[in-house]
Amino acid sequence: MISKIFVLLFAIVLAVIGQTTKPICNIRCGTQYVPVCVKQDDGIVREFNNACLLALYNCLNRQSLRPNATCVKDIVREAVQDALRKSQRLPSDSSFQGRAIRDFVDALRRLIRSL
Ligand SMILES: *[C@@H]1O[C@H](CO)[C@@H](O)[C@H](O)[C@H]1NC(C)=O
């Protein structure tokens, strides 16, 4: 009887320790910025610098989050590409306004290359 109680207590202690200690995760991640994003249930989009860091987060927190949201970087890229497509339909002229638009388009091109 007493030994059964001890076994039960031991099992409870193990279960509590298992829940409170962080799992050991042998995952080494680089710092490359290739973001992946997960939309939480509260609507907040959580960004991880790369897929490896998401895997590490999942391991440490015993979760299985999968990328299921668009990252800000990709939203900006899409918006810039859209602006560039539209700019190609603008009439080209040598007026000051035309030059200002071309300068702006060049700035967008540089931005999109840096993303
Ligand atoms: C994205 O994944 C998270 C975690 O797995 C989930 O809670 C959330 O509902 C998902 N969101 C969408 C938009 O699928």
UniProtKB/TrEMBL annotation:
It comes from the Eukaryota. Residues 19-73 form the Kazal-like domain. The keyword Metal-binding does not apply. InterPro entries: Kazal_dom (IPR002350). The keyword Signal applies. This is Kazal-like domain-containing protein. It comes from Hermetia illucens (Black soldier fly). Residues 1-18 form the signal peptide. The lineage of its organism: Eukaryota, Metazoa, Ecdysozoa, Arthropoda, Hexapoda. Keywords: Signal.
